[in-house]
Specification:
The complex is a heterodimer. Chain A is α/β, with parallel strands linked by helices. Chain A has 2 domains: about 120 residues, Rhodanese-like domain (Oxidized Rhodanese, domain 1); about 120 residues, Rhodanese-like domain (Oxidized Rhodanese, domain 1, 3-Layer(aba) Sandwich). Helix content of chain A is about 30%, strand content about 10%. In chain A, the strands form 2 sheets. A 5-stranded parallel beta sheet of chain A has the order 1-5-4-2-3. A 4-stranded parallel beta sheet of chain A has the order 7-6-8-9, with helices on both faces. The termini of chain A are far apart. Chain B is mainly alpha-helical. Chain B is built from 6 helices and 2 strands. In chain B, strands 1-2 form a two-stranded antiparallel sheet. In chain B, helix 1 crosses helix 3, helix 2 crosses helix 3 and helix 3 packs parallel to helix 6. Chain B is globular, with a radius of gyration of 15 Å. Classes of the chains: A alpha/beta, B mainly alpha. Chains A and B meet through helix 2 and helix 5 of A and helix 2, helix 3 and helix 6 of B.
């Protein structure tokens, strides 16, 4: 049993270790993808052979607020030389925050041959593993993505309103100051992109980074995760759960934890999140 | 509205000459390599939260050290070792604003970050970087002698 398997996750195969990645650098069926919060980081050096997916540039529609459609996703996959049977290993900075976001978007197109490198960029660097500034080029693929399927893992605002009516469970993964609305009202503070502060009524506050060990960015064992999400936030395995943050990026990390590490079958990410809810006219807000 | 400080304008004009994204990123990385942390004579860890940049995920800190002529030298710390953008912006702000007239520093707009990094910044990233600009401008504004000082903001 590997160290990751010993942590008690429901689906441990979604994680790979830095050592596993180092042994698959030349594997043609593996594509390593770096996705960061900091747009300069990939250029300072990355895992040899890794390509970059920049979330704002590559995964978003450039005009309206939405993700790319299946044509855009197909074009991205072709450019990166990714086939349907290519296994993608995502990693990145900030505890894999953006790596899990990219992972989540890929699931909207059903690319389930995907994994996260546990510990992300920081662990790879801590272990003094090689970094390269060479940007790799792969032969274009002929990827044909299906239509994007938002139903299972993505929530829109009306669905969140319905969820509220049905007394479904909500997890707000922002910082406590954002959750209370205090941060929005601090002087000299950059605008949070919302006119009102607070949280969706009934949401429990579990800041996203609690799911990782701060020293090396690895995910905490299942027992620790259960203590947080079930012991403190009172979630149950079969709950219908909606997670959100400011634009859905941090909450994709929590979506990953609940869905794959704890095996919850019904978790959706509300990517409209606070930048939508905090600007909507007439929706309920709790402080 | 006061003009941008001359040294800052020079840096921005240099960046404007590099529209290619990959080349721009390399230039900004080279700038980040010049980052020097706040000297120990001014601050030691744990740094005071009074100097922490609000909203900056890279845990950036800013200090303003007064020169004999009343202008400020700006110093920074970035606690996230992977906070390359924050370090790059810190160098640009230090080199461009230290010693500049306070009214000009006070009026530096937050959306300077888009001119430096381009529009393809995530919301959280742009807010953190804007927070650095805002904090520097705020330090200058608090030392302006009178009246209704200009507010830093988009223009």
């Amino acid at each position: 049993m590997s160290e990751i398997e010993s942590r008690g996750y429901v689906n441990p195969s979604v994680l790979v270790s830095t050592e596993w990645v180092s042994q698959h650098l030349q594997d043609p069926k593996i594509r390593i993808v770096e996705s960061n919060e900091d747009p300069l980081l990939y250029g300072t050096g990355h895992i040899p052979g890794a390509v970059e997916i920049d979330w704002t540039r590559d995964l978003n529609d450039q005009v309206r607020r939405d993700y790319l459609d299946h044509q855009g996703f197909s074009a991205l996959m072709r450019r990166l030389g990714i086939d349907k049977d290519t296994t993608i290993v995502f990693y990145g900075d900030r505890n894999n925050w953006w790596a899990t976001y990219a992972y989540w978007v890929f699931q909207l197109f059903g690319h389930d041959r995907a994994k996260i490198m546990d510990g992300g960029r920081i662990k790879w660097a801590q272990e003094n593993r090689p970094l390269s500034r060479e940007v790799p080029q792969y032969p274009p693929s002929e990827y044909q993505a299906p239509a994007r399927d938002d139903k299972k893992i993505r929530a829109y605002r009306q669905q969140v309103l319905d969820h509220l009516q049905a007394k479904g469970r909500l997890i707000d993964v922002r910082s406590p100051a954002e959750y209370t609305g205090e941060r929005l009202h601090m002087p000299e503070y950059p605008n949070e992109g919302a006119l009102r502060g607070g949280h969706i009524p009934g949401a429990a506050n579990v800041p996203w980074a609690r799911a990782v060990n701060p020293d090396d960015g690895t995910f905490k064992p299942a027992a620790d995760l259960k203590a947080i999400y079930e012991g403190e936030a009172h979630l149950s395995h079969d709950d219908d759960v909606v997670v959100y943050c400011r634009i859905g990026e941090r909450s994709s990390h929590t979506w990953f934890v609940l869905t794959h590490l704890l095996g919850y079958p019904r978790v959706r990410n509300y990517d409209g999140s606070w930048t939508e809810w905090g600007n909507l006219v007439g929706v309920p807000i709790e402080r | 509205m006061p003009e941008l400080p001359a040294k800052l304008e020079e840096t921005l004009e240099l960046l404007d000459l590099v529209p290619d994204r990959a080349e721009r990123i390399q230039l900004l990385i080279d700038i980040a390599d010049r980052f020097e942390e706040v000297p120990p004579r001014l601050a030691r860890r744990p740094f005071s939260p009074d100097h922490q940049v609000p909203a900056c995920e890279s845990e950036a800190y800013v200090w303003g050290e007064q020169r004999p002529d009343g202008t400020l030298d700006f110093h920074f710390a970035v606690e996230n070792p992977q906070g390359i953008s924050a370090k790059s912006l810190a160098v640009i702000l230090d080199e461009g604003l230290s010693g500049a007239p306070l009214d000009q520093v006070a009026a530096v707009p937050q959306d300077l970050v888009y001119r430096v990094f381009g529009r393809e910044l995530s919301m959280g990233k742009s807010m953190g970087l804007m927070g650095m600009v805002s904090m520097v401008a705020s330090m200058a504004r608090s030392r302006l002698p009178t009246g209704n000082p200009p507010l830093a903001g988009p223009r």
